[in-house]
Amino acid sequence: MIVGKLKDVDEIKDMLPEDLESLFIIGCGTCVSVSLAGGEREAKSLRDLLELYFRSQGRDVKVNTATIKRQCDDEFIDSEELAISEHDVVLSLACGVGVQHLGIKHPGKMILPGVNTTFYGRNSDVGEWEEMCLGCGDCILDDFAGVCPVARCSKSLINGPCGGSQDGKCEVDDEIDCGWDLIYNRAKEIGQLDRLLSYEGPKDWSTARDGGVRSHKNPEFFSE
Amino acid sequence: MAEYISKLEQLLEEGEFVVCSEMGPPIGADPEFIRKKCDDVKGYVDAVNITDNQTAIIRMSSIAAAKIAMEEGLEMIIQITGRDRNRIGIQSDLLGASALGLSNVLCLTGDHQCFGNDEDAKNVFDLDSVSIIKACQQMTEEGRLINGNELKTEPPRLYYGGAHNPFADPFEMHMMKLEKKIEAGMKFIQTQCIYNLEKFDYWMEEVRKRGLHEKCHIMAGILPTRSVKALRMMKKFVAGMDVPDYTIERMEAAEDKKAEGVKMAVDIINHVKEIEGVRGVHLMPVAWEEITPVVVEKANLYPRPEV
Ligand code: SF4
Ligand code: SF4
Questions:
Q1: Residue A97 maps to which CATH number?
Q2: Which of A23, A112, B72, B118 is deepest in the core (most CB within 10 A)?
Q3: How many domains does chain B have?
Q4: CB neighbour burial string for A50-79, b if at least 16 within 10 angstroms, e if fewer
Q5: Banded model confidence at residue B2, pLDDT cuts 50, 70, 90
Q6: Distance of alpha carbon B141 from its chain centroid, rounded?
Q7: What is the pTM of this model?
């Protein structure tokens, strides 16, 4: 899923226009809801905090919230059409995709981001998420015992560990597991060490963002 | 001796026990800084590595600095890392280095930028140490770029090596990478600095078992130090450094720390010199570069051979 982190309230306050009269906070019920960043719970508590803040400033700002299933999909955002039009500003707690989708659907409306979109990750423990994939567009997990060198090595190395890998930890931080240690151990476990020995030419990055902004069409919908 | 690409290659191929040292370019644009450092080591070492923004701290480019040092009469080894340039930048710089007469290259992945003062920089790592070695090999021996295109004029003349840490765990995983580098054509290795001789001996034994010492010249890394503090810091903070307690105790017990630092370095050199497959030493005193000639003399490695 896409993992996010709710922005600091002070940063959100600074984004809001001074002459704001009404704010609509829209949570998103899918990924960022699961990563406890921008779901219904976060939307409501942010509303309470901002209401308190506006009151302490003697400002009369109306703050409402709603949470929709997926902000990146027309199917779900249509229901909030009217409410969006009735507020000065929308603060979206979706990932960067949702924020922009709302903007495309509501030209002329100020849509602000309330969440920092961090990575594609998994729920690794209660309240903990870990980066797993970088969306490189050409998945090579099959060559690396199912552990991604692109996302899980801090340098995206594909020919083995750097000299900084020590005791299973990455040179960048003791809190980070060395991706190559994970690759090596899993390859050993499943008897695929030999596959790590072949030289990997530099990766083709043209399928990643380096190739330009990406989009794709499903041929089922676009055949002649 | 036109068939040799560089003096370093000639010495290694002709079986001399080679002495290298290391130089960091200035954080600034003063060429005099480099010239002065050259005077310190001239005649005492066969070749000098010049670092490439080591520990991710911005310094004068290794190629520019190496050119200045070469004009002072030193044989240089430019270090090149994958951190700051992609395959386009690296291959272009390798062609430029060769055109300037800088043929020796040490290919490294590079420290992460978090070690320096620009943690907020975007990193590259398009090529890693293995693919930089491969790029050198393809350009030099096949006259081709990584993308397969042929060079339009003279191919570069590069003599390329890499680094290895004999103390990194898990041992097998790091050996795997070493073998990949050798397969990619690496001609020489400079190792991480050695304090733990038992472990180094074990590594060399494994190297010989696999015949790697016959495919690539190995130079042992030596880091002379003059304080207990420096040893402790390395043990604790430098990833992959193995400083045994007995080394620290020995320094603690010494009255004259500088003399002891030199003695320790000389002892290690004398030890590795006797190991089958060790073809030289790479001295890298940190912030104590003026000690290099002293160590070389005390280890009976002076004078250096003429070629
Ligand atoms: S190889 Fe690419 S697509 Fe596959 S997990 Fe890694 S980043 Fe994601
Ligand atoms: S320590 Fe491991 S994860 Fe970190 S950069 Fe090196 S190989 Fe990658």
A1: 3.40.50
A2: A23
A3: 1
A4: beebbeeeeeebebebebbebbbeeebbee
A5: low
A6: 22
A7: 0.95
Residues in chain A: 224
Instruction: Give the pLDDT confidence of A190-205 residue by residue, as tens digits.
Output: 999 999 988 788 999 9
Q: What is the ipTM of this complex?
A: 0.94
Q: What are phi and psi of B32, to 5 degrees?
A: -60, -35
Tell whether A83 is covered by a domain: yes
Do residues B133 and B181 touch, judged by C-beta distance below 8 A?
yes
Q: Report the pLDDT value the prediction gives residue A79, as an integer from 0 to 100.
A: 87
A85 within some domain? yes
Residue B176 CB-half CA count within 13 A: 23
Give the total number of structural domains in chain A.
2
**Residues belonging to chain A with any Cβ–Cβ distance to chain B shorter than 8 Å:** 154-167, 171-173, 180-181, 184, 193, 196-197, 199-202, 205
Query: Chain A contacts of B133, Cβ < 8 Å?
Result: none
Q: Going by C-beta distance under 8 Å and a sequence separation of 6 or more, which residues neighbour residue B304?
A: B19, B43, B44, B45, B46, B296
| Residue range(s) defining the domain that contains residue B260 | 7-298
Residue B151, min C-alpha distance to chain A (Å): 19
pLDDT digits (tens, 9 = 90+) for B27-46: 999 999 999 999 999 999 99
Residue A128 lies in a domain: no
**A15 and A114 together in one domain:** yes
